[in-house]
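--- STAGE predict ---
source: upstream dedup step, 1 unique chain passed
mode: sequence only
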Amino acid sequence: MAINEFIGRSVQLKVERQAAFGYFLSDGDEDVLLHKNDTDLELEEGQEVEVFLYTDSRERIAATTTIPSITTETYGWAEVCDVKPGIGVFINIGINKDMLLGEEDLPVHESVWPNVGDMLYITLRVNRNDRIYVKLATDPIIENISIKATREDFNKNIHGHIYRTAKVGSWIYTAEGFKGFIHESQRKVEPRLGEKVEGRIIDVKEDGTINVSLAPRKEEALDQDSEIIMAYLASRSGTMPYGDKSAPEDIQDRFQMSKASFKRALGRLMKEGKIYQKEGWTYVKEEQ
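--- STAGE serialize ---
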């Protein structure tokens, strides 16, 4: 095999000669540079060494003795380390050169591109020009590493990373190893690809996959809604021209919540003695 066929993989090569800046390795036909920045080993001529081959910034084949877990033959989780609008995102696989996931393989809208620190399940691919790129895991690949959920997992809290996203919903791989789907109605905003999200299991399907909601549980949502209302009242010296008779569209515009949620939060705050209503207005109750 030609040496370029090992790009993105590990291979055993022989030390042909030493130079001031590293070692030249050979398969018997072609030489590859192992730069001193890519190894902490002291090597001798004639010694065999396992290296990972990649293409450097000048598109030359280079070697490193750091063998990443992610290759053209394996998948793994890796962290996004840089984002370049119009180009793509760069991912750290553990070697000195970061790998590019090009914009053509990312969502159309850059708002759901991964951020630095997000995690993606990936492999490597090499194009016809010997350039090495990142390839995202597809549904069948995620299915191969996932485990089946059971009815006992229903309603449990989960967290995981988004591995695929679309307008209709997002697909998640959880810390437990479950493969799940988040319908667009079960998320306030579309999560980023690679983003870590928290939710709960709202359905376990026959094939062991799950449906997930990112919406807070009713009690948690009630807490949040109550805090939003009290914060708005505080910003208006304790009064506001909204109450349980206000129009739904006015409530949605001002508080980004449904009228039903608004009324539940008002009811709780009145029961707790924090507010009262009068002639369509709501007031903070002064402490006695």
